[in-house]
């Protein structure tokens, strides 16, 4: 998994409303349009909400001097005259949410953003409100199944997704055609010249290695929701996937990605393709220039069968703290911050991939090479990362397998033994 950013709880208070009379109070205001009748009034409730989001959403960016998070919250406040909201902001990355929020749920934000694989921990800590009613209806209506599943845990929905979180493939289109990048075997068979690496991949990273076991037809906890189904990667096909990676790692046309080395190779014209996510898009675009291209993962022929490589798919979502006194307002804000309007703002200002069906069908949005590649990956070449506590015992054994393959400790001769050891480790959490 990607290295997490440190979380700094740097709270700043912004007075959003023109009048703040204290949390929980209500005031009456005369409706000017109905003043002739002399009786039209609306009740305004004063609310205070603490919102945590990543630093990037709160930094100055073109068109948003105070960052997009404050602008989005301001807009929400304006759209809801029934509430008079004062916002307090804190900086916390999606990747750090579970560690920071669970330290003190009572003192944590009312509304915050998180990576969906943290849901089991957050729910266990009583830090995420279960959503229902029209909120869930809206999530179901506006998102593809993979994104709905990404925030569904133990049959309930615990957040509103606003972007997908996965990885795909970048490539140099001067070296590979659109047809060639559909098959890893075709890519590896091509001669790109001396000193050129055809394919770079973080083989020693457990967020990536699953791609080959899925290509071999393997499953992890069934469809990702059934702990009792276990992991069948120690099957004949799974062992064949391990052997495939052993031979890939030995191939001189392959390199295991290390600390951004692949991006440097792209810039030097020494690399054909590399797997990563949208976070590397800007640097790779700069490195490849006019030769920049991206696509969903290719297929791989393992044990005589061509299968689709698959990445883990997840989402980033907005959740509500059950300790928040104003659940109605907090849930409405979460829906808005993760909704179509704010997804468009994130896309236009930060290049964050939208998942709302309307935006995903927008030609202007899909013209973006990275957005399209990520959308294609989610739709055709991804498996929802299992939201099970049993996944806690997955990461280390899978990482160890990848590292030992790269080091040469796993060979075709001991592949079966090593694969069975990995699966035993994955299933060590109470299974």
UniProtKB/TrEMBL annotation:
Gene3D superfamilies: Periplasmic binding protein-like II. It comes from the Bacteria. Transmembrane segments: none annotated. InterPro entries: SBP. Keywords: Signal, Transport. The keyword Transport applies. Residues 1-21 form the signal peptide. The keyword Signal applies. Belongs to the bacterial solute-binding protein 1 family. This is Extracellular solute-binding protein. The lineage of its organism: Bacteria, Bacillati, Bacillota, Clostridia, Lachnospirales.
């Amino acid at each position: 998994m990607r290295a997490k950013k440190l979380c700094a709880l740097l709270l700043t208070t912004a007075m959003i409303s023109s009048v703040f009379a204290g949390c929980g109070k209500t005031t009456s205001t005369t409706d000017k349009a109905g003043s002739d009748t002399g009786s039209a009034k609306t009740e305004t409730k004063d609310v205070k909400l603490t919102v945590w989001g990543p630093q990037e959403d709160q930094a100055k960016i073109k068109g948003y001097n105070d960052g997009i998070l404050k602008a989005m919250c301001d807009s929400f406040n304006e759209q809801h005259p029934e509430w008079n909201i004062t916002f307090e902001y804190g900086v916390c990355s999606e990747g750090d949410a579970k560690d920071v929020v669970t330290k003190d749920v009572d003192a944590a934000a009312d509304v915050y953003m998180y990576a969906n694989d943290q849901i089991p921990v957050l729910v266990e800590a009583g830090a995420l409100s279960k959503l229902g009613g029209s909120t869930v209806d809206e999530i179901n209506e506006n998102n593809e199944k993979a994104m709905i599943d990404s925030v569904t845990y133990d049959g309930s929905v615990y957040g509103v997704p606003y972007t997908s979180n996965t990885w795909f493939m970048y490539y140099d289109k001067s070296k590979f055609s659109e047809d060639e990048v559909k098959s890893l075997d075709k890519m590896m068979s091509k001669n790109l010249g001396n000193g050129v690496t055809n394919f770079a991949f973080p083989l020693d990273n457990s967020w990536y290695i699953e791609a080959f076991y899925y290509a071999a037809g393997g499953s992890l906890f069934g469809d990702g929701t059934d702990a009792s189904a276990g992991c069948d990667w120690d099957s004949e096909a799974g062992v064949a996937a391990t052997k495939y990676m052993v031979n890939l790692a030995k191939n001189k046309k392959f390199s295991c990605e290390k600390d951004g080395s692949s991006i440097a190779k792209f810039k030097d014209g020494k690399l054909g393709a590399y797997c990563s996510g949208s976070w590397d898009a800007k640097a790779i675009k700069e490195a490849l220039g006019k030769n920049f291209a991206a696509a969903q993962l290719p297929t791989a022929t393992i044990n005589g069968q061509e299968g689709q490589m698959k990445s883990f798919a997840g989402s980033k979502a907005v959740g509500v703290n059950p300790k928040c006194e104003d659940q109605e307002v907090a849930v409405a804000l979460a829906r808005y911050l993760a909704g179509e309007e704010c997804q468009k703002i994130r896309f236009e200002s930060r290049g964050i991939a939208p998942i709302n069906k309307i935006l995903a069908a927008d030609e202007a949005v899909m013209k973006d090479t990275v957005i399209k590649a990520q959308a294609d990956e989610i739709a055709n070449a991804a498996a929802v990362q299992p939201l099970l506590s049993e996944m806690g015992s997955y990461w280390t054994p899978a990482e160890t397998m990848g590292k030992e393959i790269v080091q040469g400790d796993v060979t075709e001769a001991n592949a079966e033994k090593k694969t069975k050891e990995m699966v035993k480790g994955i299933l060590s959490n109470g299974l």
